[in-house]
Design brief:
This protein has 437 residues and is an alpha+beta fold. It has nine helices and 24 strands. A hairpin with a 2-residue loop joins strand 9 and strand 10. Helix 2 packs across helix 3 and helix 2 runs antiparallel to helix 8.
């Protein structure tokens, strides 16, 4: 197996300005300097001519780089912002809908250098970085394989089922059909060479080059999130109804504590009310700074957290985020939970409409201006004099979907002296680590 290439969708705008910092070849000629493309009649206009697609290949791959202006990062998150970003590799433009998509084409190991630098802090330990290199590489190649399977299948792939009384939707990278993955948190945070990689990141990638998590002869769909909240979630409760043997419930701890059945409502509420010992139950800034970039460090309480809305605030928020008018919200009723206590289905009861929504990210998107920290929460209602709720408090656990590697837990394990293989096999139960190229 040779090192694969990857195509990354970086930005989506009707007009894109970019700088070729050295020579790039396009349509047989060499170009450099400031350029711009814009949408024109469903095609790409550049230098007064229109094209279905454009590709700029570096004249010298060792030194060539390009800069994209005003790339949006943190799309739909509370810290969404624009920044100029620098990339190596090739640059391709295509048209999708009413926008031009800028795509970066490059080798997997070069891509990983950016992902690890973007996802992790430069202060992270070598073992944590090595573990992250293996899961990021595995996740990426598993997604490419999955996309090929979906493309070759005669069955229509859908991430949503909807009826009058229920909307079940999950969010995965299958939204992307003309490139492998996107550059935002929807896939993996990728910012080219904008943030200089450190020697330790290069070392972690070099030491694990070509290593993949494998299970039953296939590359593992190696998911990760910030904090599992003490128990791992299972894949099928967050995405399609598919059970993977290596993504199963387990305590984020080496203790022998028995996990209560958190799919049972009473147990889930009691679990969230507690703050049990776990690898990811930490307030150690030295550890947290290894995982959280500056804008993530704005989040202080993540292992156990609380959010409060007045009835009016919640009603307006749900209308704005879902586009569905439930009227005044009367109740939020848990219908189904996963193995970590995360809600898979939630019933929204309003004066105009009642509906069940899921899965976990749909719930998180509907109940927050950006994303709730997780769907592992229970609801406390404050009742008014007319027996109508005047406020709702959501009390929750963890940060993210909780499937696979828990980044904060893994950082703590690294600090405690576990090596990267021990960290990986704690989170991906029964998997193996194989060098494939």
């Amino acid at each position: 197996m040779k090192e694969p290439k990857v195509s990354v969708g970086v930005m989506f705008e009707p007009k894109i300005e970019f700088i070729l910092n050295s020579g790039f070849i396009c349509n047989g000629a060499e170009y450099s300097g400031l350029q711009s493309v814009k949408l024109s009649g469903g095609k790409i206009e550049w230098l007064g001519k229109v094209f279905d697609e454009l590709i700029f290949e570096p004249a010298d791959g060792s030194i060539s780089s390009f800069e994209l202006k005003d790339v949006t990062i943190g799309i739909n998150f509370h810290w969404e912002r624009k920044e100029n970003q620098l990339f190596k590799g090739s640059l391709k433009f295509i048209v999708e809908g009413e926008k031009i998509t800028a795509i970066n084409l490059l080798g997997v190991e070069e891509y990983l250098t950016s992902v690890i630098s973007s996802e992790m802090s430069a202060t992270a330990s070598l073992e944590l970085l090595k573990a992250h290199a293996v899961i990021s590489r595995s996740w990426l190649l598993a997604q490419i394989d999955k996309n090929i399977e979906i493309t070759n299948s005669s069955e229509k792939y859908s991430t949503m089922t909807e009826s009058e009384g229920e909307l079940i939707r999950w969010y995965d990278r299958e939204d992307h059909t003309r490139f492998d993955i996107c550059a935002d948190d929807h896939c993996q945070r990728y910012q080219g060479i904008t943030r200089a990689s450190t020697p330790i990141v290069m070392d972690a990638i070099g030491q694990t080059r070509g290593e993949l998590l494998m299970s039953e002869g296939k590359i593992c769909d190696a998911r990760y999130s910030k904090s599992c909240g003490g128990v791992f979630e299972e894949f099928q409760y967050c995405w399609e109804d598919k059970k993977y043997p290596y993504l199963v419930k387990q305590r984020d701890s080496k203790s022998d504590t028995i996990i209560p059945d958190l799919t049972v409502e009473k147990n889930a509420v009691e679990w969230i009310k507690e703050s049990p010992e776990s690898f990811c139950n930490t307030t150690d800034n030295k550890v947290l700074s290894q995982v959280l970039n500056n804008y993530d460090q704005e989040t202080v309480n993540f292992y156990r957290w609380s959010v409060k809305y007045s009835q009016k605030e919640l009603s307006q928020l749900i209308l704005k985020r879902s586009g569905t008018d439930y009227g005044d919200i009367l109740d939020l009723v848990p219908i189904e939970r996963g193995t970590s206590g995360r809600l898979v289905k939630l019933k929204i009861v309003g004066t105009k409409r009642t509906r069940i929504i899921g899965k976990e990210l749909e719930i998180r998107r509907t109940l927050s201006e950006s994303h709730l920290y997780s769907s592992a929460f229970y609801v406390e209602k404050e009742m008014g004099s007319e027996q109508a709720p005047i406020a709702f408090t959501l009390k929750g656990a963890g940060w993210g979907h909780g499937v696979g590697l828990c980044q904060i837990g893994a950082a703590v394990m690294g600090e405690k002296g576990y090596n990267y293989k021990e960290i990986l096999l704690h989170y991906f139960i029964g998997a193996t680590i194989n060098k494939m190229y």
